[in-house]
Specification:
By secondary structure, the protein is α/β, with parallel strands linked by helices. The chain folds into 3 domains: 3-93, Gyrase A, domain 2 (2-Layer Sandwich); 121-217, no CATH class; 240-349, Orthogonal Bundle (Isoleucyl-tRNA Synthetase, Domain 1). Helices cover 45% and strands 10% of the residues. The strands form 2 sheets. It has a 4-stranded antiparallel β-sheet with strand order 1-2-4-3, with helices on one face. Strands 6-5-7 form a 3-stranded parallel β-sheet, covered by helices on one side. The chain is globular, with a radius of gyration of 22 Å. The two termini are 34 Å apart. Residues 244-358 form the DALR anticodon binding domain. Residues 4-92 form the Arginyl tRNA synthetase N-terminal domain.
């Protein structure tokens, strides 16, 4: 069961409770499911009971208990626990990871992208300052991943190095490669104005190179001041960008090693990887939120979370010694490939390369 399917299952439980007279509410259009927060458990959690409690004129925990009974009727859900004020924590059968992995491998780097064009035109306006230009460029990539058309307007003249070194699109070109100068005024105007690089003696991000410079400018939230230091080039665990790219490169190496051993990935149940499955399942929601809120830093932090959840899985992917590859090894290899795919796709949306070798 993918997160989208789980969301529909939660809404179905609400609809059944309404039809049977236990809840008197309007069934919402969507139910948000996310990895459990502090104090939670299981594979996913939803706050749908808290969302409905006021309209139902019942305490949130009572609404949660009503929904809990109906959710347990689904064989794909092995347990439902109510925690806190009324959060529903759901545990899924092992096949849930297989369905998610199949979806990721089918969609590839476009996993989490909108299926079709949204038809929205968004105009991003930003000052001619290097951090604002990089944030606007990454925001445009995110919006396009969700089906929107985007153009960027600078208050000033962009430096040519922003395009040649940092990969910033400074030509005013929309998703289809059509000059947008003649496009109509309809659409949303969004101002991109993150805190700029420190003044009066700003550090120059260009010597860091495209990938490290973009990460240094995108990883901090817009209201935080970026640090332009050589730490972004250091290949050690303290560097978040290194952890993300290292996790991706390790998944690619495992695929090469498995091919040498004569076996290929095959989605299946994977035990002990619930945290990784949860964050991979949350990827589409993160992309949508980062695009809607114009916050590429949110995607960057999510990729660090994915990498940190991926690395503990990797030592168990390949058989050891004279051990023969089993279904478990093939399933773990498929999950590792899915994680690498999500990391590569996310980095691409930030305008950062995901190398197969480090």
């Amino acid at each position: 069961m993918t997160p989208v399917e789980l969301s529909r299952t939660v809404l179905h439980a609400v609809r059944r409770a309404v039809d049977q007279g236990e809840l008197s509410v309007t069934v919402p259009e969507r139910a948000v499911v996310t990895p459990p927060g502090p104090g939670g458990c299981g594979d996913y959690a939803t706050n749908i009971a808290l969302q409905l409690a006021r309209a139902a004129e019942q305490p949130p925990r009572r609404v949660a208990e009503i929904l809990r009974v109906r959710l347990l009727d689904d064989r794909r859900i092995t347990d439902v626990v109510v925690t806190g004020a009324g959060f529903l924590n759901l545990s899924l059968e092992g096949a849930a990871s297989a369905a998610l992995v199949e979806e990721i491998l089918r969609r590839g780097r476009r996993y989490g992208h909108a299926a079709g064009a949204g038809g929205n035109l968004v105009q991003l306006q930003c000052p001619a300052e290097v951090r604002a230009a990089v944030v606007a460029d990454a925001t445009a990539r995110l919006l396009r991943s969700q089906g929107d058309s985007v153009r960027i307007t600078y208050d000033g003249r962009p430096a040519p190095e922003w395009e040649s070194v940092l990969g910033v699109d400074t030509k005013g070109v929309d998703t289809k490669g059509v000059d947008t100068e003649g496009m109509g005024p309809d659409g949303a105007d969004v101002t991109i104005r993150p805190i700029p690089i420190p003044v009066p003696t700003p550090a120059d991000p260009l010597p860091l190179g495209r990938d490290a410079a973009r990460w240094a400018l995108l990883y901090p939230a817009a209201h935080d001041r970026p640090r332009i230091t050589g730490d972004h080039l250091v290949q050690r665990e303290t560097n978040p960008l290194f952890r993300v790219r290292y996790a991706h490169a390790r998944t690619r190496a495992l695929l090469r090693n498995a091919d040498d051993l004569g076996f290929r990935p095959e989605p299946g149940p994977v035990s002990g990887a619930e945290a990784l499955v949860a964050v991979l399942g949350d990827h589409p929601r993160i992309l949508t939120a980062a695009a809607t809120d114009h916050t590429p830093d949110r995607l960057a932090r999510h990729l660090v979370t994915v990498a940190d959840a991926t690395l503990p899985l990797l030592p168990a992917v390949l058989p050891l010694g004279g051990e023969k590859p089993s279904a478990a090894h093939r399933a773990r290899l498929a999950l590792a490939e899915a994680a690498g795919t999500v990391l590569a796709g996310g980095l691409s949306l930030l305008g950062i390369e995901a190398p197969d070798h480090l």
